[in-house]
Amino acid sequence: MAASLFLLPGLAPISAFAACTNPAGDEGNIVYNGTHKLIQFCNGTLWVSAGSDTDLSNLNATNLTSGTVPTARLGTGTANATTYLRGDGTWTSVATGLPALTSANIWVGNGTNVASAVAMSGDATMANTGALSIANSVVSNAKLANMAANTLKANNTGAAAAPADITVAQLRAMLGTGTADGTTYLRGDGTWATVATGLPTLTSANIWVGNGSNAATAVTMSGDITMNNAGVTAIGAGTLGSTEIADASVALIDMAANSVDSGKILDGSVTGTDIANTTVTVGKLSATGTPDATTYLRGDGTWATPAGGGGGSSLTWATASITGAQNNWAPAGASTADGIEVSSSVAANITGLSIGQTNGREFFIRNTGSTTITLVHNSGSSLAANRFWIGANLALAAGRFVHFIHNGTNWTYALLGASGQNQIWSTCDSPGLITNYTQFTGGAYGCSGSVTITQCVDGFTRYTAYNEFDGCPSCFPTGTQVLLADGSTKSIEVLAVGDRVLGRSGVNTVTALKPTILGNRKMYTINGKVRVTADHPALTDNGWGIISRELYAKNYFGNYVEVSLADGAKALWQTGMLQPADMVEFGVGDKIAFGDEGFQEITSLTYEELPGDTPLYTAVLDGDGTIQLDGGFVFIGLSGTQLDKQAANTGVVAK
User: Is the pLDDT score of 247 beyond 90?
Assistant: First the structure.
């Protein structure tokens, strides 16, 4: 029978072994004993205690027999094959499939292990179809698989295919047909072929000559000269005229004795350029008098002894007469003469001299008239190359002369300082220049002295006294690094005559050296690198400049120094081709030349006081006269003019 539950509030306690009576019950019946507060069930024989309500509160899963609790007891709602028990005790349907996801996004676990929607980025991206694309320029060599040694990536299959690692031999095969080996070369038509060596055949006595289409063509040499197949040339008979004979190339030895008479020489056809040097001896000159060691050929065709002794003239003079100011003056005959004798009917200015001059050209101007002629300093009325750069205008009085030299830029005194000196004339016997000087004899550090120059020109002597020059020449200290032409460096104290150094405009050669001392000056340091005295010129973006124009005028410009030449001889050198007024002063914030073209801003300029006998060094340079120091700072060398070379073992400089 079905199980029944009876509530027996007044039932007396019974033994667990009593029969299912009192009350009567069938197997499976359950009763509640209200007296004893417990549940009993009939096991078919006895009412058995099922536990008290206290026991029910302590039930756990082990107390339940499998299959005892139906699913409907677990929650609300309908429990069936389509529902699941939710955490809130409800039987409900569960949504199937993934949640919505933005186009082309993927689920990726983030840093907190939660699936997050992101778009694929970086070296590769993905479309919403799942197609992956590798970005341009992201596959480096390191990301490629290793290749076999000496192979290349290519496709040598002759059809579209994946790249493969091919060998050099396979590459050669791809470049052309034929056999690629040590005897073949790749021809323009894509064929590995043997190159024919040697020249093609050439007809006897022919030569290869490029024709008008730039193609080598075999021709026979013809015209004035022919050539046989041994390469021997022959000048054709009657082919040489006067135009084919080089000027001054025919000497006496080339002429048969008595072969040329006056009838064979066209009147006026023989000029100086047609006569070789030294071919016309004194005996061949038509003149009266006796030619010997005491006579000179006078303009009237007479051998005579000149007045004033046997010295004679060592210069050739052109002559000119002017009647007013002369700009870019180009007197006739001056381009081939040593000097010009000029007179003027009125007081006149000459602002420039144009005689085809080149660097180093010396020239004299003598006033043979009675009126003063003024040579104007740096006048804009003449071209720069023709101007006189003499510090101030020079009034050339009657009977006076002046000696110039062209420095490649303009005319300046061959003996600097002449403009302020008296010129005393007398006769002399030995043309030339003798310079007596005492150098480094006075001053606190031996950087002063005096110079006396005696010059004998054209039978006259000019005495010019130079004295009271003071100051040591500007220089650089020991350890200053000079940039050489080969890119290496050399300390300035071991620089030698003949060394090739880098200048601003190219390579310059050291022609002389000058060691000296600091004296009573300070040593300046530019940008913590190059060290220099305040009076040494450097190239700036505003032209040549110095730290102190006052010191430059005192210690550098117009100073005299003795320099050492390549053969060990000495020479007197007067410094300063650049006028003090034309120099700019530079300091912090200005720019100094650096390297071949650039400039570097001066960010620091400091000085220190060192002992007066601190050794310094500088050099005389050819070319543009500049030198790069300590990484590229551009300075000028010992600029100025060499007065003359000193005779061996004497204190005299002799020309």
Answer: no
Cis (ω within 30 of 0) for the bond into 291? Answer: no
The predicted pLDDT at position 308 comes to 37
Q: Tell me what the mean pLDDT of segment 625-646 comes to.
A: 70
What are the tokens at 167?
A: 């060998």
Nearest to 383 by CA among 361, 411, 362: 411
Q: CA nearest 531: which of 605, 594, 472?
A: 605
In this prediction, residue 313 has a pLDDT band, given cuts at 50, 70 and 90, of very low
The whole-number pLDDT of residue 563 equals 64
Least confident of 51-55, 391-395, 417-421: 417-421
- What pairing do the DSSP bridges indicate for beta strands 362-367 and 401-406? antiparallel
Where are any strands of DSSP class E within 286-361? 296-297, 303-304, 317-322, 339-344, 348-350
Show me where the domains of the chain are located: 1-55, 271-305, 317-414, 436-470, 476-653
DSSP 3-state assignment of 83? coil
Residue 302's pLDDT band (boundaries 50, 70, 90)?
confident
Same topology, domains 317-414 and 476-653? Answer is no
Beta pairing, strands 640-645 & 570-575: antiparallel
The 3-class SS string of 428-453 reads CCCCEEEEEEEEEEECCCCCEEEEEE
- CA distances to 138, 448, 648 from 560, rounded to whole Å, are 71, 8, 19
pLDDT digits (tens, 9 = 90+) for 262-283: 666 766 667 666 676 666 776 6
- Give the sign of the dihedral formed by CA 639, CA 642, CA 647, CA 653: negative
* Residue 430 pLDDT: 45
User: Confidence class of residue 404 from pLDDT cuts 50, 70 and 90?
Assistant: confident
Residue 437 burial class via C-beta count within 10 angstroms: exposed 0-12, middle 13-18, buried 19 and up: buried
pLDDT at 647 over 50: no
Q: Read off the amino acid at residue 3.
A: A
The Cα–Cα gap between 338 and 316 comes to 5
From CA 414, how far away is CA 436, in angstroms rounded?
16
Q: Hey, which CATH number is domain 476-653, 3.30.2310.20, 3.40.50.300, 2.170.16.10, 3.55.50.30?
A: 2.170.16.10
User: Would you state the CATH architecture of domain 317-414?
Assistant: Sandwich (2.60)
Q: Please report, for residues 80, 207, 235, 628, the alpha-carbon distance to residue 90 in angstroms, rounded to integers and kept in the order given.
A: 12, 115, 129, 95
- Nearest Cα to Cα of residue 296 among 280, 313, 283: 313
Between CA 340 and CA 318 the distance in angstroms is 5
Q: What is the largest CA-CA distance in the chain?
A: 194
